[in-house]
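Tip: read the tokens left to right.
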């Protein structure tokens, strides 16, 4: 992650208590970004329903926070019961782009997918979406990137190691603790008038 991004924010796993922050982040995406993110134009109601469903599905979501506000997200969604196939999606709000946030979110997603022994990672990525295609190219050591008109197919090249699994476990524990602090802050500070 770039030095600037580290200074201004942090990335952690999202928990169900983060659903409002995740929803509000997606709602702040402008029409073009929504189109790139969902491979179609989507309404506010679609996003509200989507955000509500997300935390009930199998997978992980990582978020980039700046001053308590969620400004970017990387989503890993398992497809099917054996979890060999998953789908990934990314969104970074306009003013926080080109700072390495997308790259850092994608490295969390690739690690989580690898640790879960996902063999194929799909991305809905429009053929016109150069930013996402270029971002994926940074992961060619980890992933074999096939593309057709609308879909990027990423095939995991490496197996998990105890180190990658341990690192994810430690990050999960830290992010859970941070999420609880964030939740208390959101719940109590308004009540205290701060
Ligand atoms: C794609 C997206 C997540 C990238 O996020 P980001 O935080 O700006 O990405 P990074 O700063 O980490 O950039 C990483 C690499 O991606 C590529 N990239 C990012 N934005 C780019 C752009 N506008 N044009 C070309 N390449 C771009 C570059 O290769 C960049 O590496 P570099 O900075 O060393 O050149 C962001 O543009 C976004 O949210 N777009 C709208 C939603 C979307 O398209 N999602 C993907 C489909 S699910």
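Filled-in amino acids:
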């Amino acid at each position: 992650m770039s030095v600037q991004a580290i200074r201004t924010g942090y990335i952690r796993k999202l928990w169900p208590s983060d659903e409002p922050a995740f929803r509000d982040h997606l709602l702040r995406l402008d029409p073009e970004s929504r189109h790139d993110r969902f491979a179609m134009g989507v309404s506010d109601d679609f996003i509200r329903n989507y955000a509500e469903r997300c935390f009930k599905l199998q997978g992980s979501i990582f978020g980039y926070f700046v001053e308590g506000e969620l400004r970017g997200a990387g989503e890993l969604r398992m497809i099917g019961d054996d979890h060999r196939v998953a789908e990934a999606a990314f969104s970074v709000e306009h003013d926080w782009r080109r700072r390495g946030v997308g790259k850092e979110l994608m490295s969390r997603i690739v690690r989580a997918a690898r640790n879960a022994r996902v063999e194929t990672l799909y991305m809905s990525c429009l053929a016109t979406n150069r930013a996402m295609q270029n971002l994926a190219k940074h992961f060619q050591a980890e992933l074999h990137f096939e593309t057709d008109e609308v879909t990027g197919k990423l095939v995991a090249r490496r197996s998990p190691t105890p180190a990658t699994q341990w690192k994810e476990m430690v990050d999960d524990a830290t992010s859970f603790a941070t999420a609880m602090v964030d939740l208390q802050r959101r719940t109590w500070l308004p009540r205290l008038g701060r």
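The chain has one domain: 3-191. Strands lie at 10-13, 59-66, 69-79, 85-92, 120-124, 143-147, 151-156.
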